[in-house]
User: What shape does this take?
Amino acid sequence: MPLSPLRGLRKSTLPFSTTARERADALFLLADSFFATRRVHLAILAARHGVRAAYGQRDYAEAGGLMSYGTNLADARPQVGVYTGRILKGEKPAP
Assistant: This one.
């Protein structure tokens, strides 16, 4: 199935209706600021069109999406500090 760029809320049903019509196995939406502010709307559209949609962040699944697959940024942030501290103390970063 071809990629369907989404450039405005009025056309936001297009990827879902196209995905449903072409009987795609699933739709994967990457996280970005446009989608993040419309998580609930996107989850409702996916359910309305019977599209199995996966998302790049947990927030989308919590908003009603089917599932998410990606890094939990809230858990990753403290690790950045740990690794930075180790490097600043002289430990060599992994290649």
Residues 9-88 form one domain. Helices lie at 14-21, 33-36, 39-48, 58-62, 73-88. The CA atoms of residues 16 and 46 lie 6 Å apart.
